[in-house]
Amino acid sequence: MGATSHHAGAAGRAPTADHPSSVRNVVLVGHSGSGKTTLAEALALTAGAVKRAGRVEDGSTVSDHDEIEHRRQRSVQLSLVPVEWGGIKINILDTPGYADFVGELRAGLRAADAALFVVSAADGAEGLSGATRMVWDECEAVGMPRAIVVTHLEAARADYDRMAAVCGETFGAEDPDAVIPLHLPLYGPATGGHAPVTGLLGLLSRRVHAYSSGERTERDPDPEEFALITGARSRLIEAIIAQSEDEGLMDRYLGGEEIDLKTLVDDLERAVARGTFHPVLMAAPAADGARQGLGTVELLELITGGFPTPLERAPVTVTSPDGAARPEVVCDPDGPLLAEVVKTSSDPYVGRISLVRVFSGTLTPEATVHVCGHGLADGDGAHAHGHGHGHEEQELHQADERIGALSSPFGKQQRTLARCIAGDLACVAKLTRAETGDTLSAKEAPLLMEPWSMPDPLLPLAIEAHSKADEDKLSQSLSRLVAEDPTMRLEQNPHTHQLVLWCLGEAHQDVALERLRTRYGVQVDPVAHKVSLRETFGSVANGRGRHVKQSGGHGQFAICEIEVAPLPPGSGIEFVDKVVGGAVPRQFIPSVEKGVRAQAARGLAAGHPLVDVRVTLLDGKAHSVDSSDAAFQTAGALALREAAAEGGVQLLEPFAELVVLVPDEYVGPVMNDLAGRRGRVVGTEQAGAGRTRVRAEIPEIEIGRYAVELRSVSHGTGRFTRAYVRHEPMPPQIAEKVREQAGKGSQFT
Prior knowledge:
The structure is a single chain. By secondary structure, the protein is of the alpha+beta class. A hairpin with a 2-residue loop joins strand 17 and strand 18 (about 415). Helix 10 crosses helix 11. The longest helix has 22 residues, at about 225-245. It is elongated and about 115 Å long.
């Protein structure tokens, strides 16, 4: 890119911006272990935001400041690393790469205007996971500018040339000229069979950028280096001009005219900002004692020169809180206030902290704002209803709140800000009513933004408080935990009476339990997640309930005879009185019904509620003195139990409609896997280029861990939704096992 003009923000001072044109919001995207956090640290060092780069291994980086991240040596939450370069404030949004924390990635994409895809030179084609490719496609669909950074150049297995080619084949499959390196690696002397990368050969500048001294220095290439540059330069120039759609410049270039460097850089920046050209760069952390890591200066120059300002973001569509249309809002510090809560976290000393992106207007401390929202949509933009699965549609909540202190986060520090202008990001303290995805606006002119989509948490974790002390704190602690993480859902299942935490995966579950324990001091015990079973009659059966006792004084006397017949699914329990001649006095017929319904709720064969039967009271006997309401309730229950012994009770299990979205190459494995789970595929359909939607009906008992297992079958590329459809008879061999386990504490209830 251009010359090395370097004005870094001083360590310890929060970078600020006076105008949106001086802000760049960039999200780092890549699979776990690709080097995103190390890259953010290297950029912070080169920009002067830190005096010494931290390491992921010892928990000393700016991004990974959470205790859980220290222990796991893995990012589990979105982190903001603000730096300054050339008078431009850069908000670097470091996201977790592990699939369980994709909610944090989605928040980062929402807050950013451009994305850096981070890939490891040591991984080869395997490093470009299916999930990473899916995020690339999502960015492409909305025109978000992207560049690619190849990391881990220092690894023994690193092969930059191969990785750059893989990036071109993968991300440039539709247009090979859209993904091309800006530099070639300059290799130093080989040691132990590995030649380290010590600098870059600039294809546009035709200059050598060496980093062996610990800072970038420039020199002219030697003849061998010049030949390498010349061989790759023509394709890059043609691609840049084509992607920037500068037809006049293309004619001049093809006519043999030498194009000056400034014109080429301007076209490069235009093509990158338009989201049509995606340069490949390389970067490595600084060696001990060095001030700049390899490639970091070039990367900062691309971000400040080639990535768009917030002014170039499309206007934001808004409504009033009641849904009425409002004019689109553009990025203007003097415009109406419009901001969005991107992330919610809690600090043991400060309380709730909201990370906010301001889209219009200027946010100031102590101002009163209108907060409104109704939660985030699930991954398909619609909620999955029924039987305790999927989000429940949240009602709009709104309130006026006073803004607390504004700050700029930097690791564990919160550095005070006087204001936050349109296009910038800041943390707001003590917004007690605001949730992730909520809109902040002026109280006299309230607005509402459309929320972004989040994946629906579909891995259940049933929990119980470890002790009475834990139980007293559990409810409030879980509420706080779920308020911080919109990809986590809490359910009190009315059928199984279990407390269930729905998560995205096992690592997500582990982090939730660890946060409960370390942050809130609450210990919980995971227990088997129960599936809600039912019972019904498979055929007509009769039963006689006889409750006769005499023990001095008033006795107990009640006899009733019933017939039980199956009804269609969804009918519930019907009670019919066909007693003639007053065999059962009128005042005791409701007592029989009450006893029958109470026994039905308790279950018969394995303790599961009885459904979809008609119980007909046919006959009975009463005693003028000893009959009572309680006696006929008992007789009704006994009659139902005798009918069950005669007629045979069927167990019903819940079925879900499963909709699985996968790349075409995984349709076969997914359908085979569903068949092995007693699933019935009811249809398939194309869902865009190279993707198929598979619909199946499947017993819920078979998909308790499907969120984890689909990830394995589809190599991380599959997504699914589930919704309860009906209960169906359980196969006899499985039903027998359930009866054996009844009362032993099983996954059925």
